[in-house]
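Troubleshooting log. The previous structure file for this entry was overwritten by mistake, so regenerating from the original sequence record. Sequence copied from the archived sheet and checked twice against the printout by T.R.
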Amino acid sequence: MIDKFTLNDGHIHEAIDRIDVAIHYLQASLAEHALIQAVAGYQAKVQDAINILSDLYQEIGRNNQIADIAKQQRQSL
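Regenerated output below.
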């Protein structure tokens, strides 16, 4: 998928922002839902999803490879 797009540094910030929005949405609208709160297994799955997104947020934020890919794509134009 990366080869279809020319990446730039803005894509990193954009992805992090969208992940942050998704985390807040899951916390506010799903984790707080009465059904999710009532069933421990559901709570755990929602929390797993939030944790996965949180890990991805951190990984993207510290991944220099993405910036390197963007730089390489700019140089090849």
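The CA atoms of residues 33 and 44 lie 13 Å apart. Archived copy saved in two places this time.
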